[in-house]
Amino acid sequence: EVQLVESGGGLVQPGGSLRLSCAASGFTVSSNYMSWVRQAPGKGLEWVSVIYSGGSTYYADSVKGRFTISRDNSKNTLYLQMNSLRAEDTAVYYCARGLGAFRFDPWGQGTLVTVSS
Amino acid sequence: QSALTQPRSVSGSPGQSVTISCTGTSSDVGGYNYVSWYQQHPGKAPKLMIYDVSKRPSGVPDRFSGSKSGNTASLTISGLQAEDEADYYCCSYAGSYTLYVFGTGTKVTVL
Predict the structure, then answer these.
(1) CA distance to partner chain A, nearest, from residue B29 (Å)
(2) CA geometry: angle at A76 spanning A89 and B47, to 5°?
């Protein structure tokens, strides 16, 4: 069964850092496009970042220079390192496999990140 | 890059059809045939319902269909059922700089 399980969310102060993990099963992370998508409380979905199978990475302007996407092939796990966190980064963060590069399927259950003092 | 525009809410009775629009620009919806639609029940993760404008993944009922005309994509739910009550989001590829843009989301209510 293809499955994604996120972890690492929590409460962090403004300016702080957090690393999210997304453990995959049923497929190989390094052979797929993998993305992070977030959803602020009561709001819509916002694409955050993608890592292509070849290793290229891309970011939304809202997180560029602060967030870093990476993967550990030996652990079949995707990561999102988040630095210089702001209140507006508060959201549920989902990881998702990018099928054919243009669709997200499946999604993990999400992990909540709260940035507050 | 602005979010794609969707109606805030649509509603219909069981068995009826509803259509959700998703309006973008020639840089996203109008420029590529890479529109996808996601269903999200409260507290749950999004689920892929339509991809590449009109293709249905395995397991998605054929009551769900997608189309596109110019800069506007649409999701139609025919034969509305109680379990279709959820939020729906469109998403479009937007080129090699912006990459992906989501819609504002539409709440579907089954009366």
Answers:
(1) 12
(2) 55
Record: contact B48-A103, CB cut-off 8 A = yes
- How many Å apart are CA A107 and CA B65, to the nearest integer? 21
Would the CB atoms of B104 and A44 count as touching at under 8 Å? yes
Record: contact A103-B89, CB cut-off 8 A: no
pLDDT digits (tens, 9 = 90+) for A72-109: 999 999 999 999 999 999 999 999 999 877 899 999 99
Tokens standing for B84?
A: 């279709």
> What confidence category does residue B91 fall into, taking pLDDT thresholds of 50, 70 and 90?
very high
Chain A: closest CA distance from residue B107 (Å): 11
Q: Cβ–Cβ of B102/A47 closer than 8 Å? A: yes
Residues of B in contact with A112 (CB under 8 A): none
Helix (H, G, I), strand (E, B) or coil at A21: strand
Residues of chain A positioned with their CB less than 8 A from the CB of B99: 47, 50, 58
Given a contact cutoff of 8 angstroms between Cβ atoms, the answer to whether A77 and A51 are in contact is: no
Mean pLDDT of chain A: 96
pLDDT number for residue B98: 83
CA distance B12 to B19: 10
Amino acid B96: pLDDT: 84
Peptide bond into A106 cis (omega under 30): yes
